[in-house]
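Hey, I'm writing a tutorial for new members on how sequence and structure tokens pair up, and I'd like a real worked example in the thread rather than a made-up one. If someone can provide the structure for the chain below, I'll link this post from the tutorial.
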Amino acid sequence: MHYTLKKTVETVLASNNHLLVQLKRNQPTLHDAMVLYSNNECLNDTHKTHDIGKHNRIETRVASTWLLKPNSGTKEWHNHFKTLIRVERKVERFNTRKKDFDYSEETSYYLCDLELTAEQANTAIRKHWGVENKLHHIRDTRFDEDASRIRVNPSIFALLRSFAFNLLRFNEIENISLALYDNALSLDRLLKYDGF
């Protein structure tokens, strides 16, 4: 597991794409080196957002960026990264039972192979979580993908789930759960979708 990030970096760069990855504890040496770097070096830029979301949730995000000097990491392949990003999240959720706010704080570190401003980094990270919430969450909760026990050709069934999800989104279906139920009751409804 220690070299997953290295393989990902090499694969992405070989395909002429760019990379923004979250630093996690499974890379403890790199993670600790970047935390130390952020504490010792002057930051390049900061950007703050304040969002009032659904379900009584208020989130403040402060993104800070540092342009990395050569050999800032602990291994040679770390030199592919150009920007260190720290995102500090403070979330307030109104607890209707206690009639008071619950507070939580989280700090995450990211690396990017491009030179980004704090605003660009904040936007890119938010978009990533938008994909996570709009696609992966639905695949896990509505299609029960994580609970799947299929062991023979699981990728075919993953493609079928993606096809079903894309077909529903193409037809501007907002409530996936209700659409799956309605389509299970009537095959004719399913066959009337555009793009089938």
